[in-house]
Amino acid sequence: MAAPLWPLHGANLGTLLRTCDAVGACLAVPRFPWVPEALRRGNTLRRPACVHWVHDPPGWLARERTAGTRVVGVELAEGAVRLADLPAARGRTIAVLGHEQTGIPPDALDFLDTVVEIPMVGTGASLNVAVAGSLVLYKLAGLL
């Protein structure tokens, strides 16, 4: 499951939704007023997409983790696993994606089991949420 719980740009949500479909995953998104329209606009799939609505991201992550779901954060952080070293998911897994400028909020970091980083050689500090999420989803699905 891809979880861009603090999205910045609506266009990225539609792109990530299509990646979820490609790898057999669901998308978890917050119930911000603009998100349903962003998903409708970006959804080019010919069948209904798997979307979960999250009202309290930290609480939802805590409940998922308690239920045994592996929670992987995509973030630049001390001790992060390089994307190339991330093993494929063997069970229910959530890839948490933070805000494109500020990352995953501090109150949600405690709910992560693992943090993965995507190495970059350029001067940018991050990729957009659709690109980062797509790379991580393909790796977790064992398709890369």
Structure description:
This protein is 33% helix and 19% strand. Strand 2, helix 2 and strand 3 form a beta-alpha-beta unit. Helix 1 packs across helix 2 and helix 1 runs parallel beside helix 5. The chain is globular.
> How would you spell out the order of helices and strands?
EHEHEHEEEHEH
Proportion in β-strands: 15-25%
Helix segment count?
5
Helix content: 25-40%
Shape descriptor reads globular
Largest sheet: 5 strands, parallel
Q: Over all CA atoms, what is the radius of gyration? A: 14 Å
Mean pLDDT: 92
The end-to-end span amounts to 17 Å
Query: Structural class of the helices, strands and pairings?
Result: alpha/beta
What order do the strands of the largest sheet run in, or round the barrel if closed?
A: 1-6-4-7-5
What ranges have pLDDT less than 50 throughout 5 or more consecutive residues?
Answer: none
What is the number of strand segments? 7
Reconstruct the topology from this structure.
Blueprint (H helix, E strand, L loop, with lengths): L1 E3 L5 H14 L3 E4 L4 H8 L8 E4 L2 H10 L3 E5 L6 E2 L10 E5 L8 H4 L4 E4 L11 H12 L4
Parallel strand pairs: 1-6, 2-3, 4-6, 4-7, 5-7
